[in-house]
Design a protein that fits this description.
15 strands; alpha/beta; binds citrulline; globular; about 25% strand; 3-stranded mixed beta sheet
Length: about 250
């Protein structure tokens, strides 16, 4: 597995915020947390390709939003926030040797954080970042079934629901309509940890933020192997663990 990551921008303090109040972000601490995350990806067997951060793009560490990597191609997105559109160029370049690229084009907008790929289906959150034009484009570009999912109050689909094993999704039902996920086992986050539904599954292991111990205990009670990383500094910029990598099988 290859994991593509991108360094924290020195301007991360100016990151886009939608549901969070702005608080100061410690750049060095954010970098340390990102380094620990990359180290864990490497420990779990990934070859990590780290792209340089850019002062012009405060949110560039959240590389997940710039592309959707499938087995046969990479969809390069057109991020919903205008300040993030230019992030895609270096990512498209880095992915080009790994997957043939296809591009979401105007007027469609799509953030990778809104896309949850479950086997052959692509679930897409209807968020403020992702618009209706994008659904038809994604169908046409990928040839996959594309299923829209209603969100309420979450920045992205994967803020509210992610996969944690072959049959289980971790979810905050306050933020997402779970009807489209019939057939999956749903594990609810602890009510005290609304941001706890974001996890990266890598082989048989889940990469998870250190800040959600109650939900972590629920995952472990299901026999899921969980490895935690500190991610609270990056969380101040409204990003979680999935946002910080693109996984290429
Ligand atoms: C943004 O608002 O775009 C960033 N501050 C956070 C992006 C987080 N990405 C994600 O959930 N996939």
């Amino acid at each position: 597995m290859i994991a593509v990551t991108r360094d924290v921008s020195p301007s991360i303090a100016r990151a886009e915020l939608t549901h969070l109040e702005r608080v100061p972000i410690d750049y060095e601490r954010a970098r340390e947390q990102h380094e620990e995350y990359r180290a864990l990806l490497a420990q779990l067997g990934c070859e990590v390709i780290d792209l340089p951060g850019a002062a012009a793009y405060p949110d560039c560490v959240f590389i997940e939003d710039t592309a959707i990597v499938l087995d046969d191609l990479a969809v390069i997105t057109r991020p919903g926030a205008a300040s993030r559109r230019g992030e895609v160029d270096v990512v498209a370049e880095a992915l080009a040797p790994l997957r043939p690229p296809v591009h979401i084009t105007a007027p469609a907008t799509l953030d990778g954080g809104d896309v949850l790929v479950l086997d052959d289906r692509i679930y897409v959150g209807r968020s403020e970042r992702t618009n209706e034009e994008e659904l038809a484009q994604l169908r046409q570009l990928t040839g996959r079934e594309v299923i829209p999912v209603d969100l309420h109050g979450a920045l992205h689909l994967k803020t509210a629901i992610t996969r944690v094993s072959h049959d289980t999704l971790l979810v905050n039902r306050d933020w997402v309509d779970v009807a489209p996920f019939a057939g999956w086992t749903l594990l609810d986050v602890d009510p005290a940890e609304p941001f706890g539904a974001n996890a990266v599954v890598l082989g048989g292991t889940v990469i998870y933020a250190f800040s959600y111990p109650r939900t972590r205990a629920k995952l472990e009670a299901r026999g899921i192997d969980v490895r935690t990383v500190p991610a609270d500094e990056l969380a101040k910029a409204e990003g979680g663990v999935t946002c910080c990598s693109l996984l290429v099988r």
